[in-house]
Structures are given as C-alpha cells and as structure tokens.
Write a structure and sequence with these properties.
This protein has 163 residues and is of the alpha+beta class. It has a domain at 11-50. The chain is built from three helices and three strands; from the N terminus they run αααβββ. A three-stranded antiparallel sheet has the order 1-2-3, with no helix packed on it.
Length: 163
C-alpha cells in the first residue's frame, strides 16, 4: 500500500504513540546527575537569581521622562555633508542645462549652405544659359543643345584653375 493512500488519521495516531514512548530529559533542577562543571554553573545561576532584589509590586510605579541626548553631545552637521549636498545640486543643474542644450541642438533644423560659385565668367551671350559650374566642369545650354566642358580636377588648391 502506498503511504500517500493511507488515511491521515492513521499517521497521526502512529506519531502520537511514538511521542508517548519518548522519555523526557531530566529537568534543570535535578543537577545531581550532571557533571561537576554543569552542576557548579547551575548552582551559581540559581544563587544569583535568588539574590535578586524584587521591587514591591504594590508601590506606585514612577515613570521617568524619555531619555534624550544632551545638546552638547548631539552630532553637528558636518561641513563635508553640506559640501556634498551643494556639489550634488550643482551636478543636477549642470545635467539639466546640458540636456536642455542638447535638446535645443537636436530639435533645430539646419539649413544646407547654398553652393558657392567657383568661377565668374563674362556674361553669356544672348540665348546661352549656364546650368552648372563646378571645379572640374561647366554645363551650358543653348536651345536644345547642351555643352559640357570637362577639365581635370584640381590637385592643389593653390593651382590656378584656368589652364
């Protein structure tokens, strides 16, 4: 039979029977059967307990005011703690200012700079339109014809571009 299938009442009856068969240990007052050191310690404790002066219970109980630490002993706020608080406050302000500046920088839209003109030439003849001017090319248009003038890219910025 599986122990889980047994009724709970049978198990508790068995535990009760085992408990009743146990022999209790001798009480602490019976020190005669103990070793000498234990007997000496128990006798000393009993003597100390019996010599305690028990106050008269019928006497009125006087309550003392709560204990307070005298003012001269109270710890003062240290300079170090106040400096730490000021530094913490300054760090918080700096963090907020940095966050606000970052937010402003990221939220503003940056407009691209207009392209700079590389070279200025004489005004084109009538009917010729300049489409694009770059360091290495110029694009012109006259009616349906487009003209693209290509040149090597400049290698040195100090080198003249009109070669």
């Amino acid at each position: 039979m599986n122990p889980a299938d047994e009724p709970v009442e049978d198990l508790s009856a068995e535990l009760r029977a085992l408990y009743r068969r146990l022999e209790p240990s001798p009480p602490a007052d019976e020190v005669a059967h103990a070793d000498q050191e234990t007997e000496r310690v128990v006798r000393w404790m009993q003597g100390a307990w019996n010599t305690l002066d028990v106050p008269n219970v019928t006497a009125p109980i006087v309550t003392a005011p709560p204990v307070r630490v005298p003012r001269s002993i109270r710890p003062r706020r240290s300079v170090r703690r106040s400096v730490q608080r000021m530094l913490l406050a300054a760090a918080a302000v700096l963090l907020l200012a940095t966050g606000a500046a970052l937010w402003h920088t990221l939220s503003t839209r940056v407009e691209p700079a207009p392209p700079t003109r590389v070279a200025q030439g004489p005004a084109p003849a009538q009917g010729i339109e300049i489409l694009d001017v770059r360091p290495d090319q110029v694009e012109l248009r006259s009616g349906p014809v487009r003209l693209l003038l290509l040149g090597p890219p400049p290698t040195d910025p100090s080198e003249p571009q009109g070669r």
